[in-house]
User: Which sequence fits this backbone?
């Protein structure tokens, strides 16, 4: 009998501030609980557009937005993470998401995702810039040129588009979100611990 | 020199599902941390209306709404609280909020608030019903008839209206919210522990 370990899917959007907090802590936490990770980049833009939003709800609702930035400062401090607000916000994470989708089953995905989030919210840099993304790939030892070419193909674009549809089908409406093997959905960096608990408790149900 | 203890303001809305979770656990938790509580009923209706919403965002955005009910089930189970969905949702909590505002500096406020939330989300009852509210007042030993008369006066109505304005001035956009003595705002049942930590750490700053 094969012994398997529980797995959760981590759905993240590069423009999402709270996805940054999760991306920086999820690997160590999942490993300490014996839970495997599926990295699932997606885009909130089409999901927000479907409910009539053309930008981040943090921009549409100013009180919520200014609260979010203050809360993010507090959470980053608790996690000892650097924090810088990128301009513009939200950032266009389309290219980064395509790269993460292309890399997601390999060893470069996690370091790539972390490095992009660090550049964006740790240093306030513009992650829509292909040169920044190529430099990140080189830094982590990935074949930058091949990757940057591959992600312009229709098949990678299609895969990311399909991921957005899959997210919607799972009931996802924000990021970060976590989905366990039995389909249980958890939303928000604050729910990461509960998602991991659930994954362990219901594994093999 | 007078020794004072830290205090937080607990801003709650009777229609708010997560305010229920907080109301049932805040007193014991605050007491264990040596933090005093100010109970601050308010209404989200006018705040939501100011941003163009005419009902709960959980009704406007169905994916978010169905997630919320599932998440609430999980959180209620973790806290060993009963859960029943009131119909209609959101409930009209105007009368209950006026009563809580009228009682808020006295000994009956906390038991009244808890009993109303229990009726609404523990039993699924309609808290806009004056008979239910009067019965709750009788149950907790308050002078029900006097209270029900007093809350129809203009001065109590005005006090609740002013509380809504005060909440907006503090940057509050949802419930539950917590505000410490130095004006730090925390939103959501998930932030109660951090709000209490902050209140203790920054007391007398």
Assistant:
């Amino acid at each position: 009998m094969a012994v398997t370990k529980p797995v959760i899917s981590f759905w993240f959007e590069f423009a999402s501030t709270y996805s940054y907090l999760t991306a920086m802590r999820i690997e160590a936490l999942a490993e300490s609980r014996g839970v495997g990770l599926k990295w699932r980049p997606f885009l909130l833009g089409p999901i927000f557009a479907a409910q009539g939003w053309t930008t981040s709800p943090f921009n549409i609702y100013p009180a919520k937005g200014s609260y979010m930035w203050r809360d993010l400062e507090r959470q980053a401090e608790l996690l000892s993470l650097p924090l810088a607000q990128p301009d513009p916000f939200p950032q266009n994470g389309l290219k980064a998401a395509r790269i993460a989708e292309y890399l997601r089953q390999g060893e470069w995905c996690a370091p790539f995702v972390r490095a992009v989030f660090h550049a964006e919210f740790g240093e306030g840099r513009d992650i829509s810039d292909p040169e920044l993304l190529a430099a990140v790939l080189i830094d982590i030892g990935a074949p930058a040129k091949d990757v940057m070419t591959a992600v312009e193909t229709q098949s990678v674009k299609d895969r990311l588009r399909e991921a957005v549809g899959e997210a919607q089908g799972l009931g996802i409406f924000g990021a970060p979100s976590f989905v366990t093997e039995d389909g249980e959905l958890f939303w928000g960096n604050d729910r990461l611990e509960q998602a991991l608990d659930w994954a362990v408790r219901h594994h093999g149900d």
User: Anything to note?
Assistant: The first helix of chain A runs from residue 17 to 33.
